[in-house]
Amino acid sequence: MTRRKREIVGLMNERDFPHLVELALPAAGSRRVFLEFDAFHRKRRIPVRRGRSRHEAEQLYVRFCFPDTATADEFRNRFGGECLTHARAVKREAEEEWGKKKWR
Fold first, then answer.
1. Sequence-separated (6 or more) residues with CB below 8 Å from residue 80
2. CB-CB contact of 33 with 25 (8 Å)
3. Per residue in 15-48, pLDDT tens?
4. CB-based burial, 18-42: b 16+ in 10 Å, e otherwise
5. Are the beta carbons of 61 and 23 closer than 8 angstroms?
6. Separation CA 68–CA 27 (nearest Å)
7. 26 φψ region: left (φ > 0), alpha (ψ -120 to 50), beta (else)
8. CA separation (Å) from 7 to 50, 73, 75, 90, 97?
9. At 19, which helix (H) or strand (E)?
């Protein structure tokens, strides 16, 4: 099984920058919001590091990765979302996958 480059880079960002903020974004009209995310990072002179994204129904979830808790909390306070750490995110995904398995 091959993995796409974006998935590998996102996973590496989550591993190397373990303080994550996961945001739920609408499927359409999110360009202005992404410009605000870029301005937040530019103001603090930190690169935008995105983790893996996921889709559920019509909802898009995007993860942003930060090197420290303070910056992640500041981002969450400004834009909303849920703060995670890399270990918690991996555990939650494993639990979701386990629930999706079909037992015979």
1. 23
2. yes
3. 787 888 999 887 666 788 889 999 999 999 999 9
4. bbbbbbebeeeeeeeeeeebeebbe
5. yes
6. 29
7. beta
8. 10, 24, 23, 14, 17
9. strand 19-25
